Each structure stands twice: as structure tokens, then as C-alpha cells.
Write a sequence for this structure.
């Protein structure tokens, strides 16, 4: 990881606010002349709202951080000269993050987006001292008077991808390259499998953990391990297109995650579960400019236009595409929920009864695999 003294901390995207000069006449006064009207003083330019983004990986050209940066660019264009945005990429989830946050505040940023789960404690520490700064923490769960948390229901995108996987797998074994074993990631794994099993209940799943958000070599190695184990359709919860590229090299199929990854491996690509942060970022900036920013937890999904499965491959059968469209419509109008019982874990324990819909407490605490997934979630062995 780069350290702060090796990295330019703030890459300014918009120009600084330009001070408006007040013109004043100072010529010699003529006694016989009629008094001239004093020129009106120009109104001072309003200060721009300075907004900073902290990214856990390089922006690159696809994936989690890339999508956040697309959202940043979108609000910069939308709000034009009312705001000034900047970012720091590849900030590790360590004490380094707190130093970056404090530096951002020191440079006048009044709204800061910290875009990875591991930043949580550092956001809390910085926010406790920087009361006049508003913090937005992606995928976290700890709020404060000046800290809001936000997330996208990526599990809805995973479920839609699972429907496609269930219709396309010939080995009846799908796989997931997983990043870090937190409920968000485990929820996505399970949702992908539930989607596949909605098409074919006999589908089984394997998971390989890389324990990093962004590590292309490890992601490729994990993908190869899964393919060697009989998996022919892969999903991922990591930040690079390595899984998709590996699938193409090996003759398997895979999905893009967070952003459109179709260009990286067009033969392997089955679809991309794409996050759009623009709706949420627009809301936060609008509220902040109006003096109406508020803390809380905001979790948006297909209904709000924050996630969708895009670029579904041409060779996916129409009946499978129709299933995706039906599920998407249900998520939009609220008539369908991914986590609706009966749902059992892979030990046979019933977790949701028939017709029971999981609440947010259930969803945010998932630490098990659903039926059909091999193994145990790391950290739960022996429980």
C-alpha cells in the first residue's frame, strides 16, 4: 500500500471558488460636477461545498471504486459550480485512513464519503473531533450526529445474476470468489445461490475466500480453484475483473460485479450486477446544500435505481431473461423480496418459514451459508 507521503492526498476536480472583486472609483473629485452615484458593491461569491471521497482501491476501469467515482463525476457535473469534489484512492483500512480523513477536513471539505466497510472505526474517531464535517460511510452500521451510513442492496443484483447462473450452468455447480467474510458479502453469496436455485433447486455452490477487496492475482487463483472443482459459472464479491478474465481463459462463464465488466471478457460475460451511486449521492448533496443533511442508515436497491443486472448475454434463453425481468419488477414495486421463506441453512436448520420475509436485522446479521453451499463461513467453524 502507498503511504501518505508517497501519494497526492487530494486530486482536485473542480477549480477553487473565485473571489469577486469589488470595484471602487478613486479619481479626483471635480467641484462643479454633479455628485456621481456610488457604484453598487458586487455580492461576494458563495463558497462552494467541498466534498471528498476516500477509496479503498485504485479507481481503475471497472468495479466497486470505479462506480463510486462515476457517482462523484456525476454530481460534479450536475451541481457544477456549487460544489468542488476531490478524492484519494488506494487508502488502506488502517490508521492511515484516519489521517486521510483529517487531512481532507483540514483542506476544507465539509462532506466526506468513506467508501469501504473497514473505514468504520476511523470515521467514528475523526467525526468525534470534527463536528462541523458531515461524514457518509458506505456499508457501515455505526452512525453519529455527523455520521450517516449508506449501502446498496447488492444482494438484489446477486439474486438476479443467480437466476441467469441457474439457467446456464451445465455442471449444476456454481462458484463465488469472495472477499472479506462480513455479513454483506455472505448475504451476496447466499442471494446468488438462492437465485440459481429458484431456477434449478439442485444447484450446488462452492466458495473461495481471498480475504481482500482488491487482489487480482488472488482473485484469478481462486477462480481457477473453483473451475478445477467443477464450477462452470462464477460470481464474485471482489473489485477487479480477474475472475471474469480467468473464466474466459478457462472456457467458463462469469458475471461482472459493481460495474459493467462486459468488455473485459465478452465471451465469458453473462451479465454485470451494476451499482449506480448517483441517485444517493445526488440526494446527499441536495440535502447538504439546503442545510437539511441528516444522519441515519440509508439502504437503496432496485426500487431506487441503485442496482440492476445489465448486459445479459445474448445466448441466455429468453425464459431465463423473463424470470429476471419478473423478479426485477417485483423488487421495484415491492411485491417480491429475495429473502422470503422457506429458507434453510446448509445444516438443515430452518431460518425463515414459508412466506416469512426477512427484516433488516436478519439481513444485516447473516453469518451462515444457505442449503446447497459447501463449508462454513470463516469464523463460524465449530459453532
Amino acid at each position: 500500500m502507498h503511504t501518505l507521503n508517497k501519494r497526492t492526498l487530494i486530486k482536485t476536480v473542480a477549480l477553487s471558488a473565485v473571489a469577486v472583486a469589488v470595484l471602487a472609483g478613486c479619481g479626483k473629485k471635480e467641484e462643479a460636477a454633479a455628485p456621481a452615484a456610488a457604484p453598487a458593491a458586487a455580492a461576494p461569491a458563495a463558497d462552494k461545498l467541498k466534498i471528498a471521497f476516500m477509496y479503498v482501491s485504485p479507481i481503475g476501469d471497472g468495479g466497486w471504486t470505479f462506480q463510486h467515482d462515476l457517482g462523484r463525476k456525476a454530481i460534479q457535473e450536475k451541481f457544477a459550480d456549487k460544489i468542488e469534489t476531490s478524492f484519494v484512492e488506494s487508502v488502506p483500512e488502517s490508521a492511515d485512513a484516519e489521517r486521510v480523513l483529517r487531512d481532507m477536513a483540514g483542506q476544507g471539505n465539509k462532506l466526506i464519503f468513506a467508501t469501504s466497510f473497514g473505514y468504520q472505526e476511523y470515521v467514528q474517531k475523526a467525526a468525534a473531533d470534527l463536528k462541523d464535517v458531515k461524514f457518509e460511510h458506505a456499508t457501515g452500521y455505526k452512525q453519529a450526529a455527523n455520521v450517516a451510513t449508506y449501502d446498496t442492496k447488492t444482494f438484489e443484483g446477486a439474486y438476479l445474476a443467480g437466476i441467469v447462473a441457474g439457467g446456464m450452468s451445465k455442471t449444476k455447480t456454481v462458484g463465488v470468489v469472495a472477499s472479506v467474510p462480513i455479513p454483506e458479502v455472505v448475504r451476496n453469496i447466499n442471494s446468488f445461490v438462492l437465485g440459481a436455485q429458484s431456477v434449478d433447486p439442485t444447484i450446488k455452490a462452492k466458495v473461495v475466500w481471498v480475504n481482500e477487496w482488491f487482489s487480482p492475482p488472488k482473485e484469478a487463483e481462486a477462480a481457477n480453484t473453483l473451475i478445477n472443482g467443477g464450477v462452470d459459472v462464477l460470481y464474485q464479491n471482489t473489485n477487479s475483473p480477474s475472475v471474469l478474465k480467468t473464466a474466459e481463459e478457462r472456457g467458463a462463464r462469469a458475471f461482472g460485479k459493481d460495474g459493467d465488466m462486459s468488455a473485459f471478457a465478452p465471451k465469458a460475460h453473462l451479465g454485470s450486477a451494476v451499482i449506480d451511486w448517483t441517485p444517493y449521492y445526488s440526494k446527499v448533496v441536495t440535502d447538504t446544500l439546503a442545510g437539511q443533511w441528516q444522519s441515519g442508515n440509508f439502504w437503496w436497491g432496485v426500487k431506487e435505481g441503485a442496482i440492476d443486472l445489465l448486459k445479459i448475454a445474448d445466448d441466455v434463453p429468453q425464459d431465463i431473461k423473463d424470470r429476471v425481468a419478473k423478479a426485477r419488477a417485483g423488487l421495484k414495486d415491492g411485491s417480491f423480496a429475495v429473502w422470503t421463506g422457506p429458507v434453510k441453512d446448509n445444516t438443515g436448520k430452518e431460518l425463515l418459514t414459508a412466506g416469512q420475509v426477512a427484516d433488516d436485522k436478519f439481513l444485516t446479521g447473516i453469518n451462515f451459508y444457505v442449503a446447497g453451499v459447501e463449508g462454513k463461513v470463516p469464523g463460524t467453524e465449530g459453532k
The CA atoms of residues 230 and 305 lie 35 Å apart. The domain at 154-274+307-363 is CATH 3.40.50.2300 (Rossmann fold). Residues 183-199 form the longest helix (17 residues).
